[in-house]
Write a structure and sequence with these properties.
The complex is a heterodimer of chains A (236) and B (592). By secondary structure, chain A is mainly α. Chain A is 75% helix and 0% strand. Helices cover 60% and strands 2% of the residues of chain B. Classes of the chains: A mainly alpha (236), B mainly alpha (592). The interface between A and B is large, with 53 and 73 residues.
């Protein structure tokens, strides 16, 4: 459960940092006072509510994946585990999802500067690349399956299919939202504040999913194991 | 005595809160059924949770009947007994308590108490309820599925949970249970996002975090915990579904069942236990923290005194939440773990007693020399303190490895967790319903019926669970369908079992009085008015009772003070609502 505890420590640090700014040591029973207005005190505009919602949601998704990864390491400790080869296709897929993320980042910049003519192709490219990533993942499944690495053969295989599947489902969900945003971008003439926010949210989500994928990929390729071994040696 | 000037520099600048665009229902359906109004959703959550909770109550009766009169009832065979245990436990913990505290009270109280018009994502909030309802229906479908519901115990330990020897293991039972939990978690996440983000973003002007009522603190912190803990159950359920349906071996070791070697091999049942209890222990506090918060408000309001040590109460809630994530393996002392781990987890477990004890002392000190009104909410709050202390103390015993190992599989554990996370939170639920029913419906609950309900429930619960400690110390095992002849269980234990069963039937029946009161008072109860308890918090200051759509009329409330200005010296009344501005200076006692 070390991975999970590490994840929780990160979350805990964020919570602690946030709470440190909330005057938890104030004495509310002494503060019978009229409300002071916030004008002039807040220099930067407040974070939109929906964005906070997305961050909290990503926290939950992060918890799910870190728990799966914890389970992965704990299950790996038993003797019947033997790793599976990483199909070369996964490298291509990694490039695709990274490119998709980059395209969204581009879209975000274009939206901020109000350049619709660039925003549309950027969003479309991101959608296309993410879709290609999903197709590539399914192709990788088929490749492994025909090579005899079936789901039930070995826990390493089981984890591979389960985790890529779960990650794929999250990408699929992201695609649905990104698709709606793209449609809106093609229907609108100028990037409204709402459209900009949507693009922004999609970017955050896909960056997060890219990070999750990179960690999973490191796990499947076995580098994560070397890293964990190194940590263990440092600890002991 | 010091003079605190109006507009003291200590005041925290309030965030500007924009009026949100509310969804305005256009038809009866969108107003009362597919409603996006948190207040309606709260009632929907509560009614559903109580309905499925009643099923669990009847299941507990059936179990008790078997334990007191083994073999008398033909329809309770061993399989059914285990199915009743499993469903009783899972329903009570997840589908009743979690859903009621967070989905029910959370939805009703958070927007009203922080001064918001509604939750921040009303649509997701509505979906959350309907997904919860689907989860409940999937769970209940187990009773009608071939082979019946699962009988694996509420902990669903593999490998037995998916083997044919366990009821529902190779039938529909375990599948329905696992999928119901997965659906529940998805639905809860939608609601949970709302509760957290509403507290973060939806607070009225002037409502700083340290001016929030402890109820909101409790529900808020519990939701954050739930959002981080439920994923563990989700992961465990998904992996077990894979094992059961697709033949993987995450949890399943090599095993011979009925003479045939199964396809599984190498899996780790302990891995499941880690995942389950990583959810399971925080779950105890997911239920307890809202109860802590609510009981603080009930005590303060009905003792007409500010809560003692408000800051400590807030910090204790946060510390308990953090600690509860590093104690999970104290449920696994008997799983053959490394003794060093046992020592670690025993230590963290006992440390939790410190913030918890702070809370108990603060409740008692709030009562100290207060103007105690023995109203029904106060009676239930007092009952909670006593019960929680009782259940908590046996928790200190069980937190120690050497004490836990012999007691782990006895009725002592049943007595412990029923006191601390069964009876105690349920007493708060009752207290909270007696307290807020006037706001929800505009009418008071009947006092006489309430007192009957209170005394039978409170005393009866003790008569049920106190003797169980003794049975546990004798060595009477838990989870056994029938004890039979043993050398160490005296015949008197059997008499005691009959007594417990009779009390369980009586206490269960007393809940009918409560249900009758809920329905009868809806039509015939005394008119409550806007603020029958003369309370300070925002929900009692709404322009209409019950609060209308949008809660606050044209203007959002502005908060000028904390939630506990009761019996302020020099004030004309013994309470000052949070919305009341300071006029000139307020004189009050300051202990530096």
């Amino acid at each position: 459960m070390n991975v999970t505890l590490l994840f929780l420590a990160v979350i805990g640090a964020i919570v602690a940092w946030w709470m440190a700014g909330q005057r938890l040591t104030s004495k509310p029973w002494l503060e019978a006072s009229p409300v002071q207005t916030a004008t002039g005190l807040d220099d930067h505009p407040p974070v939109p509510t929906i964005k906070i919602g997305l961050y909290v949601f990503l926290g939950v998704v992060g918890a799910v994946f870190s728990l799966f990864i914890s389970a992965y390491f704990m299950r790996m400790a038993s003797s019947d585990w033997w790793g599976m080869p990483v199909p070369r296709l996964l490298w291509v897929n990694t490039a695709l999802i990274a490119a998709s993320s980059a395209a969204l980042q581009w879209a975000k910049n274009e939206a901020r500067h109000g350049r619709m003519e660039n925003l549309r192709p950027a969003l479309a490219a991101a959608l296309l690349l993410a879709t290609l990533f999903l197709i590539g993942q399914i192709e990788a499944w088929r490749e492994l399956n025909t090579a005899g690495y079936v789901l039930t053969d070995n826990p390493a295989n089981s984890f591979f299919y389960m985790l890529t599947g779960l990650h794929g489902l999250h990408i699929l969900g992201g695609l649905a939202v990104a698709g709606r945003t793209t449609l809106r971008a093609f229907a609108a003439d100028i990037p409204s504040a709402q459209l900009r926010l949507s693009v922004d949210l999609c970017t955050v989500y896909f960056h997060f999913m890219l990070a999750v994928w990179l960690i999973l990929f490191a796990l499947f390729a076995g580098w994560a194991n070397d890293f964990v071994d190194l940590c263990r040696q440092l600890l002991s | 005595m010091v003079e605190i000037p109006a507009g003291s520099a200590d005041a925290v600048p309030a965030a500007e809160v924009e009026d949100m665009d509310l969804y305005h229902p256009k038809s009866w359906w969108t107003k009362y059924v597919f409603s996006q109004d948190a207040k309606i959703i709260a009632v929907q959550y509560s009614v559903t949770a109580i309905a499925i909770g009643l099923v669990a109550l009847v299941l507990s009766w059936l179990m008790r009947l078997q334990l007191a009169f083994p073999g008398t009832f033909a329809f309770i065979d061993a399989d059914h007994y285990y199915q009743f245990i499993t469903m009783h436990g899972m329903i009570m913990v997840v589908y009743l308590l979690t859903a009621l505290f967070l989905g029910g009270f959370g939805n009703y109280l958070i927007p009203l108490m922080v001064g918001a018009r509604d939750m921040v994502f009303p649509y997701a909030n509505m979906l959350s309820y309907w997904i919860y309802l689907i989860a409940v229906l999937i769970l209940a479908a187990g009773f009608f599925a071939p082979g019946g519901p699962t009988g694996a115990g509420w902990t669903l330990y593999p490998p037995q949970a998916v083997l044919s020897g366990t009821p529902g293991g190779q039938d529909w039972g375990i599948l329905l249970m696992l999928s119901s939990l997965i659906v529940f978690i998805i639905g809860f996440t939608m609601g949970g996002l709302n509760y957290v983000v509403t507290v973060l973003q939806g607070r009225a002007r002037g409502m700083t975090l340290m001016r929030m009522p402890l109820t909101v603190w409790g529900i808020f912190t519990a939701t954050v915990m739930a959002l981080l803990a439920f994923p563990a159950l989700f992961v465990a359920c998904v992996m077990m579904l894979f094992d059961r349906l697709l033949g993987t071996s995450f949890f399943m070791p090599a095993i011979v069942e009925m003479g045939t070697q199964l396809q599984h091999g190498g899996g780790s049942p302990i891995l499941f236990q880690h995942l389950f209890w990583f959810f399971g222990h925080p779950e105890v506090y997911i239920v307890a923290l809202p109860a802590f918060g609510i009981v603080s408000d009930l005590i303060s309001t009905h003792a007409r005194k500010n809560i003692f040590g408000y800051r400590m109460m807030v910090w204790a809630i946060v510390i308990i939440a953090a600690l509860s994530f590093v104690v999970w393996a104290h449920h696994m002392y008997v799983s053959g773990m490394n003794p060093a781990f046992g020592f670690f987890f025993a230590t963290t477990t006992l440390i939790i007693a410190v913030p918890t004890a702070i809370k108990v002392y603060n409740w008692v000190l709030t009562l100290w020399r207060g103007d105690i009104h023995l109203t029904l909410p106060m009676l239930f709050a007092l009952a909670f303190i006593v019960t929680f202390v009782n259940g908590g103390l046996t928790g200190l015993f069980l937190g120690n490895v050497v004490v836990d190992v012999p007691l782990s599989d006895t009725m002592f554990v049943v007595a412990h967790f029923h006191m601390v996370m069964g009876v105690a939170p349920i007493l708060v639920v009752f207290g909270a319903i007696y307290h807020w029913y006037p706001k929800v419906t505009g009418r008071m609950l009947n006092e006489v019926l309430g007192h009957i309900h209170y005394w039978v429930t409170f005393l009866g619960a003790y008569l049920i669970f106190f003797p169980m400690h003794y049975l546990g110390l004798l060595g009477v095992p838990r989870r056994y369908y029938e004890i039979g002849e043993t050398s160490f269980v005296p015949p008197s234990a059997h008499t005691l079992n009959i007594f417990i069963t009779v009390m369980a039937l009586v206490v269960g029946a007393a809940q009918v009085v409560f249900l009758f009161n809920l329905i009868w008072s809806l039509f015939r109860g005394r008119e409550a008015g806007g603020n029958p308890w003369r309370a300070t918090t925002l929900e009692w200051q709404t322009p209409q009772t019950p609060p209308a759509h949008g809660n606050w009329g044209k203007e959002l409330p502005v908060v000028y003070r904390w939630a506990y200005d009761y019996s302020v010296p020099g004030a004309p009344e013994d309470f000052i609502p949070q919305t009341q501005p300071a006029t000139g200076g307020v004189t009050r006692e300051v202990t530096a």
